[in-house]
């Protein structure tokens, strides 16, 4: 494992993240870690989707908000992104690029022994669900879970979501063409609908909710679910 650390932040600045790489079978994965700024209560380890990186608006908002709620946030760039490739590989390869990262997080968590939650947006959410049992995470946060390809509800991936076998929070835009909140079973995972939001959690300018309010809803909902055990029951 090769580690790269940023320069210390000034006294009035937000602490710079720690950036390090983890060796995996498909190549190096890169982790950007923002540690909790108050007493730590959990880890949130999340990867990106198949068409974007950790700069996605929901991941960026969570990385900015959760440390103040006692959550270490580790955003994971899959090896294919680190290598500069444009197309995501097969699911098996995505899983192989994720598992060693969770092993490294577990090693770093030895002293604190905090609950670790796997997460991701879109394809990253699928990875977190598929590997939940193997990684031993306390739960999964599925951001914009791609329940089915747009316009193809018969090609459901619900079994993959339910197969996580751990408490799961699905955060889904009401305009998500990969599956609206109403398409998820009522007796399944907890679903947090985001009004007017699409698959990338973007909301139209004329919507009854602002983009900032939509992101605040996401960060508050995820923060509560991670840090208040009763919300996962």
UniProtKB/TrEMBL annotation:
Residues 41-224 form the KANL3/Tex30 alpha/beta hydrolase-like domain. It comes from the Bacteria. It comes from Embleya hyalina. This is KANL3/Tex30 alpha/beta hydrolase-like domain-containing protein. InterPro entries: AB_hydrolase_fold, KANL3/Tex30_Abhydrolase, NSL3/Tex30.
